[in-house]
Structure formats: structure tokens, C-alpha cells
Amino acid sequence: MVNIIEDQINEKVMPFVRRPGRYIGGEVNQIKKDLSKCELRVAICFPDVYEVAMSNSGIAIIYDILNSYDDIAAERVFSPWVDAEELLRKEKLPLFTLESKADLKSFDVIGFSLTNELCYTNVLNVIDLAGLEVRSAKRAESDPIVIAGGGMSNCCEPMAEFIDLFVIGEGEDAIVELANLIKQGKAKGTCKEDILFEAAKKFEWAYVPRFYEFEYENDKVKSFTAKRDGLATRFENSVVEDFENAAMVTKPIVPFVEAIQERVCVEVMRGCPGRCRFCQASFCRRPIRFRSKEKIIEIAKAAYEATGFDTVSLLSLSTADYPQLEELATELHDYFKEKHVGLSLPSLRVDQQLKLLPELVTGVRKSGLTIAIEAASERVRRIVNKFIKDEDLFAAVEAAYKAGWQRIKLYFMVGLPGETEEDIKQIVHLSYKLAKLRKKIDNKTANINVAVSWLVPKPHTPLGLSGQQRQGYFDKAKQMILDEKFKLRAGFLQFKFHDIRSSVLESAIGRGDRRLGKVIEYAWRNGARFDLWREMFDYQIWEKAFAKYDMDINKQAEKSFAEDEILPWEHLGGPDKGYILDHYQQAMQLCREDAGAE
User: Fold this and answer.
1) Is the pTM of this model over 0.90?
2) What integer pLDDT is reported at residue 418 of this predicted model?
């Protein structure tokens, strides 16, 4: 039964929220169907506010794919901001979708995209606002099936008690197969438990936590076993084989409220040839696949005509590795220059190719060039497998200045293995030299924004076996950087630091096992919401949540894993453990060699 609550929402919510545009729907290119005439109804949720959610290309692709079938309706639902949540709870109204204003219990499936550990409390909040029990074991037969996908599905045990089924890997093909299975089960009157069991048996990328159990020994995993016969205990990532013809959004929804990013987004390749030892995506998203230049241009033109967005962004983990990048950038520039549409080339590596790129986009608005250097010394870069040479870095930035770029943004990371205090101070000195390099071009010093984050060891990466540095280490590093900037009188360097405590929490949750579910639930019940937002993040709530269950948040973040230990995520797709260990041992060997040389 479909329950449309539009009148109640218009009367009791919309007039009283700060930004009603977040909830009204009806945007250009929205797809709205008669829910009562569809065999399968899916509510798609990105667990953040509208402005952030509408910038996520993955959600847009799944929305388009499902709605391309006449008998399937997909509608959007996002996390309501605190003012809307307060009104919904006060008026005892359920959370609703944007398109039809239907409550979430009207849907057969609620699907979440999990992109970061700090969105987990928002997921619980959405489930609760839907009028559902947050724990899957307590939900009724008539309740929607709750699924989740995205990058965090490869390390999803902390959320296992709340989600019915995880889609491991890429979603384009998997979501269609799963939708068809659920639709068929629904038509036959199959119970939810049996539908989930069928999915678990049939698809190597479908992980249904309720059919598995762990045995623990103190803080370690002792065993992972299936409760039923015929179920695999190792899952593989779903992979889109035909990436050339994979679904891509040619009619993006045009937001009513300005989104974080409003642009035409075209994914040019998938996977990354680099193997930075801290990067989960580079190890989990394989193999490398490319779209043809012709297909990319076709998609970009169609999406521009449907939206009027003034920027085309070429997306990938490493856009510089696209084999026809120079030709592609030239053709896009030639087509869009008279339309005053800019070209965004994110994820560029510093190498010989990057030195050519500023010339390719000389007609593009030069809002800034972003370079992820990660470590200020070549020695530390070698340890983490990030092959950037200083000479290439300086050549690339000099070429950017010559082409007209005036602002550069640099990304660094602190807490990497083999790092010394001098390496941390070198972040300031390297940034200083790059700013002064502009004097060679126009006798001016560049303004450089420098973003510094703290290493969060990630599952399925070599550095995920080692613990995070202590909070005090990062506090000291931050002060060292600011002191060094003061000594150099480098007012043209603007440093922005990631919140140390949120990085600690990310590490504590990200490499955790299923027992962390109760910590997440306790934090949510005690007010944790929007943990990715600085103004909302309350570290004390999390400290209390860990302490409630005799855990220490810092010890959890700093935990290291033995090479022969069962990892809480090793069954969840990703590369073979032996491959990860090889990389880990190589990194540690480089650290030992450097230490010996000193």
C-alpha cells in the first residue's frame, strides 16, 4: 500500500524549515511515476543533506537505471537537517521521498549509499524516521528490505546488524539483478527471509549478514562461518565488464537548492593504475577500464543540453591516466568554449603529462589547480608507493603559472610510515617554494591553500594493518606546521587541517568488527548526527559510546593487526590478502632501510 503524505508535509513541515527546497522535489529532469502501478518500489538514500546528496554521481546513476524499467519506480530520500527532523518527530510524521511524498514504508526496498564511516549514524536516523526498527532482526516481514552499497560495503561489519543485504563492489549491473530477484520473489509471495537467502546463494557480491556469525577471542576475530549450508564465506566485488556502455546520466536532475557541485560529470575511466598504499579505492576498484573519447563527448553534450551547467568534470581515480586525455580535453574545449563552459580535470597526477595539461585548457576558467602530493619528501612517497618526483612537481606548477593559473591547492597527509619531524616541517618549506616559483613568471608570489589530513588506515590497504598514530602526534604535527609557517613569514600559505578527532573516529570504526554496531547505535540514540559536519560533530558522545561497552576509542584507532590474523573485512571483496601483505612487507622493508641509513 502506498501512503502519500504530501498534504501533511506541506502543512506541518514545509512552512517551518529553513530550506524547504531540500524537501519539495519537482526539479527539472526528476522522474516521477505512479507508485501504485509499479511492481517494485525503491527508495534511494544518500545519508546526508540535499546539497551534498545531489552532488553524488553514484546515486544519480542508480536512480536512472532503475527508473529506465517501466515496472520499477525509484525515488530519492536524503537525511533531513535537524530542523526538519525535529518537526517530523514532533508531528509524528514519517520520513518521505522527494518525488511522491510517500512514506518509506510504502517501498519494497530502501537502499543506502555508504561512502564514509561518519555517515553511519545518519543511516540509523533515516531508518528510525521511516518508522522502522533500526536493527534488521527486529523488523517485520512487511517492512522494506534495507540494502546498502558504496565504498564502505567492502568493510561493512560495523553496520551488519542494521542492513539486510550489502551489495559489494560496483552497483550498475548488480542492482538490476537484485531488483529482478526481489520483484520475482514479491510476485510469488516469497517471504523476505527466503528472498535474502536466494540472493546470498545466487550472487557472489551479495552479503547478507544475518546468515553468518563470528567467534571472537578478546579483541580478535577467531572465526567467520555461515549459519546455513550452501553459502560462500568469501565475497567478490561486482564488476561492470562493459564500461563503455555502462549507464551514465545524460539528464541530471537540476537542484533547487545550490548543491556542493553543480556540473556535468562524466566518468572517463574506472580503476587506478597506481597503488598508493593508503588508498582503499585503488586496491578495491579493479580492473582498469576506459570509456571511448567519442562516448564521453556524447554524454557531456547531452548532459549539458539537459541542464545548462557551466562546468564539465571528467571523473576518475586518476584522470591523468586516461590514454586520450589530451585529445579529449582539446575537443571538449573546442566545443564548449563559446558556450562559456569550463572543463574540470580532477585527480591529476604530477608527471610529464600534467605539465602539458595547463596548455590544453588555456581557455578554461582557472579557478585553481589541485595537486595531491601526500608527503613532502620523496623518501616517504616511495614508502607509500606514491611516485612523484620533486622535479616533475615544480615543472608542473611552473607550467600552470605560465598558463594563467593563479591559485594552487595542495593536499598533504601526516602520520605516514617512516615519517620524521623534518618531513612534517618540509610540508611548509615545499609549499613555500611552490608559491615563490610564480615569481619566475610574473614576479608575484602565489597564494597557495594547503590541506593537511591525518592518515586513517583503511581496510583492504597495506597500511590498514598498522595502527593510526596517537592524537598527540597529530596535535604536535599541526603546531609544528603552524610554527614553521610563522618562522618563514609565509602569510601567502593558507593551511586547513582536518579535524583530528573525526579522523580518530573514522579509524576506530573503519577497521572494526560487528561488535561496533552497538557503539554506533548508542552514539546515535544519544544525539550523534551529521558527524561529517564540524558544527554537528560531538566527539564526547562517541567517547561515551565506546566506554559504555568497555572499549577505548583511541586504542581502537591505534590497533595493529598481525599478518596471520583474521581481518574483520577480509571476506568482503577486495584484493587477495597475500597481495596486500606483499605490499605491506615492502613498505616496512623500506622503513627499515631508511632507519638503518640514518
Assistant:
1) yes
2) 95
